Amino acid sequence: MFKDTNQRIYTHQTDKGLRIFSIGSQLPEQVLTDQHTTGVAIEWNYGGEMPGEDMVLLIRILDRSLESLSKSSHHIMTHSVLGCGAREVYYYTSDYKQFMADLNKCLSHLPPLPIEIFHNVDPEWTYANSIRELAEKG
Known about the structure:
- The protein is an alpha+beta fold.
- Helices cover 32% and strands 35% of the residues.
- It is built from 4 helices and 6 strands, in the order ββαβαββαβα.
- The chain has helices spanning 30-35, 53-66, 96-107, 126-137, and strands at 7-14, 17-24, 38-45, 75-83, 86-93, 115-121.
- The chain is globular.
- It starts with 6 loop residues before the first strand and ends with a helix.
């Protein structure tokens, strides 16, 4: 299992507003990236530039619930982004079917949430690397 407890925070101003990135300070070893080839985005589009106080509370509840996904050796969280009307939490998984089962389990205690899930095969971790580059540019 890979767990990077040293998250780095970056901000990026876009024409749509401020985005705040939380990105692991390091990528996992090559053997893990070779095994975790499917990227999965969990998105919550809340509208507006930055979430209001009530929405921040709901996002924190979602984030805490998602923490259990990183305890599995099948899933690695690479980053989260907040701003420009959306919250995104991104994972790479070695088993998409298991990821969805684990996601449903960790969210089962919550009421239905307006989240969308997108996935794609990304063995080179292209998306995670592009987000890291964007965040580091500022």
